[in-house]
Structures are given as structure tokens and as C-alpha cells.
Design brief:
InterPro entries: DUF4442, HotDog_dom_sf. By secondary structure, the chain is of the alpha+beta class. It is built from 4 helices and 6 strands. It has one domain: Roll (Thiol Ester Dehydrase, Chain A), CATH 3.10.129.10. A 6-stranded antiparallel β-sheet has the order 1-2-4-5-6-3.
Length: about 160
């Protein structure tokens, strides 16, 4: 579904898996090239060590790139399925208060995805997310592997194994 950046921001803010973990989408760029997220520590997302639960941090990171790619590519006329295929998370520093991150997709990222989708029908690539505390210290590094499938991609006869 194609929606405006403002509407998507509010939908994500009140999407229960994000809302109840205190994950707040601060902004989504109007062209869907980036977004900013804050995660506030609360009784609902605090772990045994009194820091933000790692699952909360992953939940925040999990949705970002797929949502941006889906909106960007849908606006360009693609019918796509997009999701986070995997992630690698390095927890570097205990996160005792609000943590935040921003991500952005460059024109190169977008054109590369389009080219691969047009040639092969699917694109799989990892994208970074660096999460900071209020002091500007890096708390978490995440690499999100995003899977994008062009649902309208048709293989040529030779790619299908048909030989003339």
C-alpha cells in the first residue's frame, strides 16, 4: 500500500509491536529516502540489567529498510515483496536511556536495487544502522539484510531453461 510519509509515520508510531516497546518514529523523509527513530527505555522494554532489551532494539531496526524500499519502489511502479531476511547485531554499550538512529538510502542504493530487480527479479543486500545514546556514544551496530522481490519479473526463456 502506498501512503504518504506523514501517514506512515503515524501508522508506525501506533503499530502495537513498536508502540508498546516505546519505539517512536520521529520523522520519515517525504521522498522515503530516510527516517529517524527514538527508543525510550521503560518498564515495558527493560531487561534484567536495567537497559533496553535487545529484542526492542531489533524490532526498531527490523522494519526500517523494508518500509522505505517498499514505499520507494511502489511509487516507481514496481510490485514488490520486501522484508528483513536476517540481521547481525553488535551490542557495544549498555543503553540506559533513550537511544536513537537515522537511516538513509542514497540514490546509488535505490538505482542499484532497481537495476538488480530488473535484471534478476530479486535483490538481497545488507544495510547498516548505527544506534546512539543521548551522549552521542555508539551503543549498537546493526547490519540488516533486506530481501526485495519484483513480483512482476518474468524470466526470459533461456533463463527458464528453455533452449531453442
Amino acid at each position: 500500500m502506498v501512503v504518504s510519509a506523514g501517514l506512515l509515520k503515524w501508522v508506525l508510531r501506533f503499530y502495537p509491536p513498536l508502540f508498546f516497546q516505546r519505539i517512536w518514529v520521529v520523522n520519515i523523509e517525504k521522498d522515503f529516502s530516510g527516517l529517524q527513530v527514538n527508543i525510550s527505555k521503560s518498564i515495558l522494554n527493560r531487561n534484567y540489567n536495567r537497559s533496553i532489551f535487545g529484542g526492542t532494539i531489533f524490532s526498531a531496526a527490523d522494519v526500517c529498510y523494508p518500509v522505505l524500499f517498499h514505499q520507494l519502489l511502489s511509487r516507481k511502479g514496481y510490485k514488490v515483496a520486501v522484508w528483513s531476511r536476517s540481521a547481525h547485531i553488535d551490542f557495544l554499550k549498555k543503553s540506559n536511556g533513550t537511544i536513537k538512529f537515522g537511516i538513509s538510502l542514497s540514490d546509488k542504493d535505490i538505482s542499484e536495487a532497481e537495476q538488480v530487480l530488473n535484471e534478476h527479479g530479486k535483490h538481497i543486500k545488507s544495510y547498516p544502522i548505527v544506534i546512539y545514546n543521548n551522549n552521542g556514544d555508539v551503543c549498537v551496530n546493526v547490519m540488516c539484510e533486506v530481501y526485495i522481490r519484483n513480483l512482476n519479473f518474468k524470466k526470459s526463456r533461456n533463463e527458464q531453461g528453455v533452449h531453442e
